Amino acid sequence: MKMLELKDKSRSQLEADLIDLLKTQFSLRMQHATGQLNKNSELKRIRRDIARIKTKLAEKGSSES
């Protein structure tokens, strides 16, 4: 997910995406803990996507005030 993709999304869409990514991250962490995760890079990608969305939410929050 790129920042350009997030630029046109509304705050509610970003929050929904964030919740989905957090659920995915939890699932991947459980797979990693049980040794079932094949692609460790997925954890890193999801973590960075979460950070991107949180950054965009912070930007939108500060611009609305």
Task: Write a concise keyword list for the protein shown above.
mainly alpha; 3 helices; 65 residues
- List low-confidence stretches: none
Order of SSEs: HHH
Mean pLDDT: 91
Largest pleated sheet: none
Strand content: under 5%
Helix content: over 70%
Radius of gyration: 14 Å
Derived structural class: mainly alpha
Form type: elongated
List the total number of helices: 3
Number of strands: 0
End-to-end distance: 27 Å
Please describe the topology of this protein.
Blueprint: H1 3-7, H2 11-33, H3 41-64
Keywords: Ribonucleoprotein, Ribosomal protein
Family: Belongs to the universal ribosomal protein uL29 family.
Pfam family, one: Ribosomal_L29
Structure description:
By secondary structure, the protein is mostly helical. The chain has a domain at 39-64. Helix content is 80%, strand content 0%. It has 3 helices and no strands. Helix 2 packs antiparallel against helix 3. The longest helix is centred in the last third of the chain and has 24 residues, at 41-64. It is elongated and about 45 Å long. The model has no long low-confidence stretch (mean pLDDT 91). InterPro entries: Ribosomal_protein_uL29 (IPR050063), Ribosomal_uL29 (IPR001854), Ribosomal_uL29_CS (IPR018254), Ribosomal_uL29_sf (IPR036049). Keywords: Ribonucleoprotein, Ribosomal protein. One of its GO terms (molecular function) is structural constituent of ribosome. This is Large ribosomal subunit protein uL29. It holds the Pfam family Ribosomal_L29.
